[in-house]
């Protein structure tokens, strides 16, 4: 049924058969005299009829069966059970409020057996969840856990109640409920017990001694064989406790362990990647933070606020990551270019050896997995089908056979090595040919030939690297207010063979980064800029200090109005020339972002869409704080 939770029994013909049997029993054996049923086994038949229809998702007929038992006969030992099942059916029909009213009446008036009381509270809890009344739902499920005799269900009820208490941030009640689950130990599924341990630790307020003791206990749990499939949960909780203590290095190790041991828990993968991203971001490793935010998005559903929030975080780091990669790549190539030919050959020989070892290890791992796949892997077969009657299972078996045995002819003694030798040798020969073909390219000469030889190519690499370093310096200051990293990248620009038109801009940015905290260093860069580049636009910016800021802003507004008029009148080249000559003089004014945007539009009109996009990217870096305030 569309929009409904599909039950395991749907499509199972046994439910239809049960319904037929129940109807026949009622038709043939019902004995009603003066409105009273004399055959009390008919009550069982009506209960069977209602449950069979319920599990087949035929909810209206199911409700009819339960109501018939409640209204048409007098006393019946199934009265309370039928009433509770009728309310379950109301829930599936979307009648949550009716179910809540009726269940409250049942619990307050009827004398219920212990198991019936547990069923009633559990159904009431589900009704409250449907109505998003989580406090009431948690209390109802907690009561269901108290009354049920089924230990597995008791753990389940307590666990859901604990999750709801945690959702409402009631840590004390959540801790109590999780503790109830933990106390059941081996009487419940181990995954539930491990999750409860993690939930208890998540909500418990520890003293220092208690936390140290629990961390030791966690380490013991992690070493136990029966927990090998649940290490992702245990390692993640271990990391959470360490991070709360400020031990971020050890916490990051445990988050990575959690990811390594996580097979299918995508929600936990997302949380671990996000935690690692935050740790790297706080430690100012923005590239690693970007990669973990990117990995987080793999496990976060589309069209959610969470995804939108993470995408914005990642986008803020995308340009930084791109520029850092460019710097690292160009530095690597330039360092190789500076080596002698013998040094280059020695470097690539070591590199080729490491590549071959890595490829060999991967091949061994693949062979190991395929060799063990036939023995270790199992295919779940649903229903009563024999192996060879299930096409999917047969196909899987053929694939596993081929991976383990290779191509074998249909003949006697097919497993003997001598019989399979020809096929094996053919496969081996093919592999050797492929390996030989690969090795022809894995030579030092092949890699050395890829290095740039033309001086103009080398200069281009240096210029790209220097420009990237400058943009990184500007970005670290404007986006993250990270003076230290900004200064580090900008000072490196000056230490390289930097082109003359980039040097005054770099000196000016260094002056701006130092002026607040280390004015004596700012003075050094100011003097260099004024003495070495007295006629540059950046020198004019520093010299114009005697003009009031308000006067500068007024001049900038007038200039913006004039250039905008030129642009709108179609004088694009004139607008371009004015911006090129005078825009830098208004860089520190309130209309600087508008001027930059107008300049981008002018460039787009003259040079095309690529130039326009590049200018917009520059604006997002130079005026990041202004844009964020505008949002």
Automatic annotation (TrEMBL):
Keyword Disulfide bond among UniProt keywords: no
Sequence ranges of the TPR repeats: 118-151, 270-303
Protein's UniProt keywords contain Nuclease: no
Keywords associated with the record: TPR repeat
InterPro entries: TPR-like_helical_dom_sf (IPR011990), TPR_rpt (IPR019734)
PROSITE patterns, sorted: TPR (PS50005)
Protein name (database record): TPR repeat-containing protein
């Amino acid at each position: 049924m569309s929009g409904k939770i599909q039950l395991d029994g749907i499509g199972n013909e046994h439910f239809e058969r049960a319904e037929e049997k129940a109807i026949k029993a009622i038709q043939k054996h019902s004995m009603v005299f003066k409105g009273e049923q004399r055959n009390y086994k008919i009550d069982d038949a009506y209960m069977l009829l209602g449950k069979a229809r319920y599990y087949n998702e035929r909810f209206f007929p199911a409700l009819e069966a339960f109501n018939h038992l409640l209204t048409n006969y007098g006393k019946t030992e199934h009265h309370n059970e039928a009433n509770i099942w009728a309310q379950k059916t109301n829930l599936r029909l979307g009648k949550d409020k009716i179910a809540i009213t009726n269940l409250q009446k049942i619990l307050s008036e009827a004398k219920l057996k212990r198991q019936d009381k547990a069923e009633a509270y559990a159904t009431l809890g589900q009704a409250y969840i449907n109505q998003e009344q989580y406090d009431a739902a948690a209390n109802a499920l907690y009561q269901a856990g108290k009354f049920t005799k089924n230990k597995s269900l008791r753990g389940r009820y307590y666990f859901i109640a604990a999750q709801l208490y945690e959702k409402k941030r009631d840590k004390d009640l959540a801790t109590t409920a999780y503790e109830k689950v933990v106390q059941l130990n081996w009487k419940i599924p181990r995954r539930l017990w491990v999750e409860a341990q993690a939930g208890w630790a998540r909500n418990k307020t520890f003293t220092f001694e208690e936390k140290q003791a629990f961390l030791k206990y966690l380490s013991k749990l992690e070493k136990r064989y029966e927990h090998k499939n649940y290490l992702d949960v245990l390692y993640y909780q271990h990391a959470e406790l360490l991070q709360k203590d400020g031990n971020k290095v050890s916490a990051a190790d445990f988050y990575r362990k959690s990811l390594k041991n996580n097979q299918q828990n995508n929600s936990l993968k997302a949380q671990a990647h996000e935690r690692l991203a935050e740790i790297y971001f706080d430690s100012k490793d923005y590239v690693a933070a970007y990669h973990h935010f990117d990995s987080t998005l793999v496990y976060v559903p589309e069209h959610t606020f969470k995804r939108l929030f993470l995408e914005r975080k990642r986008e803020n780091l995308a340009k930084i990551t791109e520029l850092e990669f460019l710097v690292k790549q160009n530095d690597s190539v330039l360092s190789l270019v500076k080596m002698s030919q013998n040094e280059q050959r020695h470097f690539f020989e070591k590199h080729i050896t490491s590549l071959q070892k890595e490829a060999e290890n991967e091949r061994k791992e693949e062979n190991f997995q395929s060799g063990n796949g036939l023995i270790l892997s199992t295919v779940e077969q649903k229903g009563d089908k024999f192996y060879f009657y299930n096409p999917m299972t047969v196909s899987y078996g053929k694939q596993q056979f081929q991976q383990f045995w290779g191509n074998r002819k249909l003949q006697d003694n097919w497993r003997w090595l001598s019989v399979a030798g020809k096929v094996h040798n053919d496969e081996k020969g093919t592999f050797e040919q492929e390996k030989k073909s690969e090795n022809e390219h894995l030579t030092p000469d092949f890699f050395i030939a890829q290095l740039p030889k033309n001086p103009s190519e080398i200069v281009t690499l240096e210029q790209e690297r220097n420009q990237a370093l400058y943009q990184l310096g500007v970005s670290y200051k404007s986006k993250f207010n990270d003076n230290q990293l900004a200064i580090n990248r900008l000072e490196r620009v000056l230490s390289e063979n930097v082109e003359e038109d980039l040097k005054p801009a770099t000196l000016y940015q260094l002056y701006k980064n130092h002026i607040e905290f280390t004015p004596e260093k700012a003075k050094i860069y100011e003097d260099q800029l004024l003495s070495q580049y007295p006629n540059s636009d950046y020198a004019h910016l520093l010299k114009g200090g005697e003009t009031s800021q308000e006067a500068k802003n007024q001049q900038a507004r007038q200039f913006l109005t004039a250039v905008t008029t030129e642009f709108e009148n179609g004088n694009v080249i004139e607008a371009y020339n004015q911006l090129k000559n005078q825009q830098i003089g208004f860089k520190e004014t309130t209309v600087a972002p508008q001027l930059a945007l107008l300049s981008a539009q002018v460039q787009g009109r003259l040079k095309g869409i690529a130039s326009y996009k590049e200018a917009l990217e520059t604006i997002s870096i130079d005026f990041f704080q202004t844009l964020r305030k505008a949002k």
